[in-house]
Amino acid sequence: MRRCIILSLLFMSSTTWIHSQSITFPPDKNISTSDLLPLIVGQEVKGYYSFKFARETKDKKNEYNLLIMDINFKITRDAYLTINNKVWFFRETFNGDQFCFTFANENAGVIEYYICDMEGKLVKLIHMEDVKKTHIYPTYMDNVYPVAHKGFFRDGINPKQEEYLEMIGMDGRSLWKIHPKEILINGKNKGIEELSFYYADENYIVLNVDIPKLDKDDLKKQSDHILRAVNLETGKQTFVVDKRHAKGFLVPMGVQADQDQITFFGQFFANDGSKQGYNEKENLGLYTMTYDATGKLLQEHFNTWKDDVSKFLKLNEQDQVDGNRNIWIQDIVGTASGKTFAIAEMYHRGFSNIAFSSGYAFVRDLLVFEFDADFKLTAVDRFEKYKSSYQLANIGFLSDYTIGEALDPGSFDYKFTSQAADRSVFNCVYDNFDKSDKSDKKFVIGAVGFNRDQELVNPKITLTTNPDDIKVLSAKPGYVAVIEYFKKDKYATLTLYKFDF
Fold first, then answer.
1. DSSP per-residue letters across 4-31
2. Is 402 helix (H, G, I), strand (E, B) or coil?
3. Mean per-residue pLDDT for 177-203?
4. Residue pair 404/360 in contact by the 8 Å Cβ criterion
5. What is the mean pLDDT of residues 151-161?
6. Cα separation values, 109 from 87, 136, 276, 418, Å
7. What pTM did the predictor assign?
């Protein structure tokens, strides 16, 4: 029996179907729904791709099939990549022009990176040996991040357990490495800084830096929690952002950047003397900070829940953003109009059992924070949706803020943001349930869209097909791709829906 995915292109108005067309992929490609991933550059969806094992060659090597598709799922490239059969596939990364496919053999201490162009041609094979698995860094913690149109950034384990982070250029060569610095204060060794990736685009790379062994006297000369921006060409430090701010401890949750400046968005908490630097039970509000490319501070705004956000958003006792309530910023969207929007979801702790071994977290309404061209808060819009619940292990031992960290991206209702190339419009998409009829719970796909009239709208699509489960894929602005699973009949459909806005 041949296997295929049925694709339906459904163009919908608010009341009727205008067009419906069923499509099947070529049966010899054997594409499954779990293989499809979007090609995203910034916040623009360019198409889709699939990368999976195809066959074993006569010389006992493995061939993987790379399929590249346009925005309507039409196959535009069909290529094969021959892989060493001693390594296994771990992950893929796309930087707008190239793919980096990671393969590894943990037992042999080998990692291989296959960098390919959009034609499926191999640009560079990077082979690393003597990458030993340790209790601190198993191989799966080796991460590769896209640097748009510039290459890839490695943050993970290295040969002979050498500690460094590395920038890989478009030709697959190592451009530079960053080694953790030894911290000396008054001639005393205070340990090695801990580095991790935070953000990258074609203009900036930002690292998270923690120095865990500093005491109160040391902090008078050296902060223990900073963001470090480095030059994309050289890896040299350009500026730092101290998270221990006089207004409160900064917890960055998003970035909006262009060639000339970079803005950090996040929440700020009450400072305290703990190693982490802040009291998670005292969430004070939202902040924005903008720097130019040299590190000069251009602006900073601190918006407290009590005095500033409350002007635009009325919260009741059930959803106060305080000791047991929080928001998670999902994305930051800048627009051609000069406005910037922070997309967030409310969440809070649910009940847990006596042993704290398990419990529930609840995801609630969507919040959109609107900022003007100077990043001043000008509005907050709340979009109601039914409460979702997710079970978490050890929830009783998690702080209210770290519950948000423990919720993986799939646990939130938010799924993606897509934006037009000219940045004139965007939509963020979430999935949810219509629970108005408890006997007939239906999937709902909702969007918050910024339309050409510069208005925020909230169109929704209720699925009438009654699937057992769904998976949402990023799509071009105004659209959403939905995979619907039907367990009894053992098939899935992929449908491209159009929102009415």
1. --EEEEEEE-SS-EEEEEEEE--GGG--
2. helix
3. 91
4. no
5. 85
6. 10, 15, 34, 39
7. 0.88
